[in-house]
Specification:
Phosphatase 2c, domain 1; binds manganese (II) ion
Length: 475
């Protein structure tokens, strides 16, 4: 005879606009589903999964019934997405716990697909039972990255296995002997992304009432950012099944099966050597958590059963799909990086071009030195860096130079711009000298320096020296 007391809570969080998590809390069946898929897909997927799970488990409330109910839920979501093209690709996680009676003993069965989690809280210690089916976690199990790296890995939110995205799915399952005082926690990643194990354990220790514990956990996740939907189910074993010997026998038998390589493969992640199995077997010894190996009725060699082959095939498909997804992600990332580089490079080039350019122009009659390009470049407009105090009226007699200044005379540097202005001033002085002497001796050699001085302006205008001289001479 086992007595449970439970509580649950769910919250949209502070960032998302809708809550795509769903939870289930009946007398003997509990679940958390975290839907995914654009627009409304996520909440539809999690809703369908929960409803199908409850219906299927109701008609077969057993350990095996729970695993099959999860498979039914998978099929229900898959079929719905096939019938509704706008919902293609939707899916959900599903982590479930059920109290069932097996051979006269109450047993708690846990099943999981995806990265929502199940934990056991026993004597103040929090132990994760489920294995996350995320890309990052599977890389940890394959020994490719460390657990610490996984917590910040860019693909920690990408699921390697989910409910409803393929017609078949591999379900992980465990059985646990319900022991008085033990507490079980089902939750979506909205909780575990915000709170560490110690923070979760703290709340579970401090709050004896399961409903209060659920509420406080959700509130704590909100306070830590609430970047995702948060859903929690807390299950307390008030009175456990105290039939040690029989449960032990059951445990021993299942553990032996679970210990075989075939069993491990079912429990573990696709294609990995299940490094988690070490931790798992420790957990089995310490807490009686036993991986459930699905037995086909009448199949003497479970490894030869068509279902297992099918499962392996669907796992292979899953891996291919995953690789495809990873490839797409990397390609998208490379594209974004290249795009960013082009934008930053273009911006820098324009900025550099602008900042390293100077020209001499006129403000009214005064010669100004501007930083920038004549007329500006894109959104950069020239900036006055020096009012020279030199005016056209009193120092310049050459109308072509004035014309050039009016449109602006580009110089390669600030120093060059200043040199150009002082050159004009000196030219002007010599022009005065020239005209002074010219009045005395008309059309002499002293006009030559004038032509040379105003040379640059002429070049910029595109006029020929003879034109300029002709104008000059005409004065
Ligand atoms: Mn989530």
């Amino acid at each position: 005879m086992t007595v449970l007391r439970t509580g649950s809570a769910s919250d949209t969080g502070l960032v998302r606009s809708t809550n795509q998590d769903r939870s289930l809390e009946t007398g003997t069946l509990f679940a958390v589903a975290d839907g995914m898929g654009g627009h409304v897909g996520g909440e539809i997927a999690s809703q369908i999964a929960i409803e199908a799970l409850e219906r299927a488990f109701g008609s077969q409330p057993s350990s095996r019934g729970l695993t099959e109910a999860v498979e039914r839920a998978n099929l229900a979501v898959w079929e719905h997405s096939q019938d509704h093209p706008d919902l293609r690709g939707m899916g959900t996680t599903l982590t479930a716990a059920a109290l069932v009676n097996e051979d006269g003993n109450d047993v708690l069965v846990l099943a999981n697909v995806g990265d929502s989690r199940s934990y056991q809280f026993q004597d103040g210690r929090l132990t994760q039972i489920s294995l996350d089916h995320s890309v990052a976690e599977e890389m940890v199990r394959a020994g490719e990255i460390s657990p610490a790296e996984a917590t910040v890995h860019p693909q920690r939110h990408i699921l390697a296995r989910a409910l409803g995205v393929t017609a078949e799915v591999a379900v992980d399952a465990w059985t646990v002997a319900p022991s008085s005082g033990d507490r079980y926690l089902l939750c979506s990643d909205g909780l575990t992304n915000e709170l560490g194990n110690n923070q979760i354990a703290e709340v579970l220790s401090a709050r004896a009432d399961p409903q209060q514990a659920a509420d406080v956990l959700v509130e704590a996740a909100r306070r830590h950012g609430g970047s995702d939907n948060i859903t929690v189910v807390v299950i307390d074993v008030l009175v456990g099944e105290e039939t040690g010997a029989e449960t032990g026998a059951e445990t021993g038998q299942a553990a032996a099966t679970g210990g075989s390589p075939e069993g491990r493969a079912t429990v573990g992640s696709p294609g990995t050597p299940v490094p988690g199995a070490d931790g798992l077997s420790t957990a089995v010894d310490a807490t009686g958590i036993v991986p459930v190996v699905r037995r086909e009725p009448g199949a003497t060699h479970p490894q030869a059963s068509p279902s297992r082959r099918q499962r392996r095939r669907s796992r292979a498909t899953e891996r291919r799909r995953e690789r495809g997804r990873r490839l797409v992600t990397i390609r998208a990332l490379v594209f974004l990086v290249v795009l960013a580089a082009i934008l930053v490079g273009g911006y820098s080039a324009v900025r550099w071009f602008d900042v390293n350019s100077y020209y001499v122009g006129l403000d009214g009659n005064e010669l100004m030195i501007y930083q920038g390009r004549i007329g500006g470049v894109l959104w950069y407009h020239p900036v006055v860096v020096e009012r020279t105090g030199v005016t056209t009226g009193n120092v310049l007699s050459d109308p072509l130079t004035v014309g050039a200044l009016r449109s602006g005379v580009q110089e390669p540097s600030y120093a060059a711009a200043r040199a150009y202005v002082s050159g004009l001033v000196r030219t002007d002085t010599s022009t005065h000298t020239a005209s002074a002497s010219a009045s005395a001796s008309a059309g002499d050699a002293r006009a030559a320096p004038v032509a040379l001085r105003t040379g640059p302006g002429t070049t910029l205008l595109g006029a020929t020296g003879t034109d300029r001289l002709a104008v000059s001479g005409g004065q």
